[in-house]
Design goal:
Elements lengths: L31 E2 L2 E2 H5 L1 E4 H6 L22 H18 L3 E5 H4 L6 H22 L2 E6 L18 H20 L4 E4 L5 E2 L7 H22 L4 E4 L9 E2 L4 H10 L6 E6 H6 L4 H10 L3 E5 L18 H13 L8 E3 L10 H27 L4 H7 L6 H7 L5 H11 L10 H11 L1
Parallel strand pairs: 3-4, 3-12, 4-5, 5-6, 6-8, 8-10, 10-11, 11-12
Antiparallel strand pairs: 1-2, 7-9
The structure holds D-xylulose and cobalt (II) ion (CO).
Length: 437
């Protein structure tokens, strides 16, 4: 069989002392952390779009990543060959999952019928490759943003025909996701938002989007698709006002339109930071409300203001992420999807391996560090103590709803002033985290 990465063997765990750049130093899939294997905690996934379709274009420059296996066409033949490339890459890397948009895996045709037929051809091959390698589909999704027909949005377009096209496309993408055993289905509202208030009926657009989600849910029930639906919050880029701005905006929409049992969130680091949040904030906010479903693992650049989708290598970041994920007992059926791309200057196929190995090792370290912090209750004891005034007396009555403003006033009139505050100890806690890192 042709090999597309002849210089790479199956990537092995060699331990922290290894200097081999094509080995894991921390990710040891079967190693048990808090009673669960690393692979089950982390559920890594490779994304098809950045890893196998990204060609290094940017707004100023032409493709730099010309792949030896790619003939430069968007043909079905090239797409079929790409399946072999993808499964060789993922097998050698040792990831259990992958994800795709419909248009990443198969070329769009001139009509919807032709596009669906193209997709069917590739899906048949993906199914074979999954059976052969044991690699599974974490999620599927539909690309409702690249084609010019979606310039005004998809489910929020003012053009009812575009809405119908988007519905048909999601219907098909959901069918193939189900056919491939996909465990989730993602909705990233690429152009579900707007650029200009003067030409926008925001109420109608949001109502239409809600109808879309209910129809998607009805169809999932109709065909027996059991995958978890996930919204992926993002504040801007491409539109100025994205309706799925952040976890809070998504949750408000989900609640307002009765979708709480239907949709959870797929939270992405670079999207969190574009919204002015930390990833840990977004994860915690979603998790405490029971809607943290999955993550897109990447990172932005501190100095650039757009979605750079870089591979995560920062141990503080991965530790913070894993602290929240472990607190909620894991992500399944979600996972850790590397929605990340190599820089356009990293032009060799082997750079795809370095990038993913680095990301996986960073997460494995984050997992182990978070587990050590948790084993010592290093943060949780402090936080518990910080709120202990709510464990008895007036605090207890506030929490269990057995007091009121009049009683609280009487209490404070008698006492005269609140008890003295205690230090938040931020610096001590930052030092403590450094001890574990
Ligand atoms: C875009 C983005 C998407 C979604 C899937 O910023 O993150 O690739 O993950 O549509
Ligand atoms: Co993403």
């Amino acid at each position: 069989m042709t090999t597309y990465f002849p210089e790479v063997q199956k990537v092995q765990y060699e331990g922290p002392q290894s200097k081999n750049p094509l080995a894991f130093r921390y990710y040891n899939p079967t190693e048990v952390v808090e009673g669960r294997s690393m692979q089950d905690w982390l559920r890594f996934s490779v994304c098809y779009w950045h890893t196998f379709r990204c060609n290094g274009t940017d707004p100023f420059g032409a493709p730099t990543l010309t792949r030896p296996w790619d003939d430069g066409t968007d043909s079905v033949e090239n797409a079929l060959k790409r399946v072999d490339v993808a499964f060789e890459f993922m097998t050698k890397l040792g990831v259990p999952y992958y994800c795709f948009h419909d248009r990443d895996v198969a070329p769009e045709g001139k009509t919807l019928r032709e596009s669906n037929a193209n997709l069917d051809k590739i899906v048949a091959k993906l199914k074979e490759a999954q059976a052969r390698t044991g690699i599974k589909l974490l999620w599927g999704t539909a690309n409702l943003f690249s084609n010019p027909r979606f310039m005004h949005g998809a489910a929020t377009s003012p053009n009812a025909d575009v809405y119908a096209f988007a519905a048909a496309q999601v219907k098909k993408a959901m069918e193939v996701t189900m056919e491939l055993g996909g465990e989730n289905y993602v909705f990233w509202g690429g152009r579900e938002g707007y650029m200009c208030s003067y030409n926008t009926d925001m109420k109608r657009e949001l109502d239409h989007l809600a109808r879309f989600m209910h129809m998607a849910n009805d169809y999932a029930k109709q065909i027996g698709f059991k995958g978890q639906f996930l919204f992926e919050p993002k504040p801007k880029e491409p539109t100025k006002h994205q309706y799925d701005f952040d976890a809070a905006a998504c949750l408000n929409f989900i609640r307002q339109f009765g979708l709480l049992d239907v949709v959870k969130l797929n939270i992405e680091t670079n999207h969190a930071t574009l919204a002015g949040h930390t990833m840990m904030h977004e994860l915690e906010y979603a998790s405490i409300q029971g809607v943290l479903g999955s993550i897109d693992a990447n990172t932005g650049d501190l100095l650039l203001g757009w979605d750079t989708d870089q591979f995560p290598t920062d141990i503080y970041l991965t530790t913070q992420v894993m602290l929240v994920i472990m607190k909620q007992g894991g992500l399944a059926p979600g996972g850790t999807n590397f929605d990340a791309k190599v820089r356009r200057e990293s032009i060799d196929p082997i750079d795809l391996f370095y990038a993913h190995i680095g990301g996986m090792d960073a997460f494995a370290r984050g997992l182990k560090i978070a587990a050590a912090i948790r084993a010592d209750n290093a943060l949780s004891d402090f936080v518990k103590q910080r709120y202990s005034s709510f464990d008895s007396g007036v605090g207890r009555r506030i929490e269990n709803g057995t007091t009121n403003f009049t009683e609280l006033e009487t209490y404070m009139l008698e006492k005269g002033d609140a008890a003295a505050n205690i230090s938040g100890r931020q610096e001590m806690l930052e030092n403590l985290i450094n001890r574990y890192i």
